[in-house]
Write a structure and sequence with these properties.
The protein has 297 residues and is of the alpha/beta class. Helices cover 34% and strands 24% of the residues. It has 10 helices and 13 strands.
Length: 297
């Protein structure tokens, strides 16, 4: 059974919002297609940037002969190149993402579709790699505005996976040797190995990284008390616990440490991070993030 109704992802509201968003990168990988992204590489592009002295081997077509006649020296014209930004989306489709009502996986996949469509509408290359206990290639990197609906339909047809294994999924993505671009990890980042294992695995990525963190207010304080039997929603393992005020305090401290670790990791490594409240509208939240005209990852 598919994880979401097709209409929840093949949604005109998502595609209309995507046309208003712009995703940019501080550094676009060279050797891509000409598109709406700006690369720091200089060469024969479209928009004049600067001059520099001629060096042996430079393309003579770039020489500014008017400047040579005025100064008696050779200078080449530098242009800002327009190249595509490959975007690789990794939505978490593990079992735990689809148990709540509404499931946080719904917010995650709607965010995935919106960002994929935004990239496709600006002529970028998009690949989609959902994961749970392993990574799957739902759509290999390709461009084309008409792919937005196709990707949304494929995501809606997915079935929920099993346990969460972010480090394995990251390792599998790295093994694909994709051209350097922007990886967008869409997940609540809850992994049985702990957040340290997650961030350690992310350090191995050759790509720029944007984390879309799926959150809910109850994550910080579930409001549980008393003698309870807790069941792991992915493995089925049961644990009898007595939730006292001291246990509640320890949980809150642990969650705070989890959040602080993510924030510090992103800050130190210059990683983009968007926290999405899964109880609120995804489109309005992402539109607010991008309202300044774009998001630089």
């Amino acid at each position: 059974m598919s994880i979401l109704a097709r209409s929840e992802l093949v949604d005109p509201e998502l595609f209309e919002a995507a046309r208003r968003l712009h995703v940019s990168a501080r550094r676009v990988a060279p050797r891509g297609r000409f598109a709406d992204q700006r690369s720091r590489d200089r060469g024969m592009g479209l928009e004049f940037e600067d001059h520099r002295p001629y060096a042996p081997g430079d393309d003579l077509r770039a020489v500014d002969w008017h400047l040579e006649r005025r100064l008696g020296r050779l200078f080449v014209r530098l242009f800002e190149q327009q190249e595509d930004l490959p975007m690789y989306l990794m939505p978490d489709v593990s079992k735990s993402q689809f148990l709540e009502d509404p499931p946080r996986g719904r917010a995650g996949l709607r965010a995935t579709v919106l960002l994929a469509a935004a990239a496709l509408f600006q002529h970028d290359t998009v690949g989609v790699f959902p994961f749970a206990e392993d990574l799957i290639t739902l759509a290999r990197p390709a461009s084309g505005r008409n792919r937005a609906v196709i990707l949304a339909s494929r995501l809606a047809a997915l079935e929920a996976g099993g346990a969460t294994d972010i480090p394995r999924a990251v390792a599998r993505l790295s093994a694909l040797r994709l051209r350097r671009g922007l990886v967008v990890l869409v997940s609540d980042l809850f992994d049985p190995r702990g957040i340290e294992a997650v961030t350690e695995s992310l350090k191995s990525l050759r790509h720029r990284l944007l984390i879309v963190q799926l959150t809910r207010p109850v994550d910080a304080d579930p409001g549980l008390a008393g003698d309870l039997r807790l069941v792991d929603c992915e493995t089925g393992v049961e644990e009898d616990v007595s939730i006292t005020p001291a246990v509640q305090q320890r949980y809150r401290e642990t969650y705070d440490a989890f959040e602080n670790h993510i924030a510090q990791f992103c800050r130190e490594r210059g990683i983009g991070r968007i926290r999405l409240d899964c109880d609120q509208d995804v489109v309005s939240q992402l539109t607010q993030v991008f309202e300044s005209g774009g998001f630089e990852a």
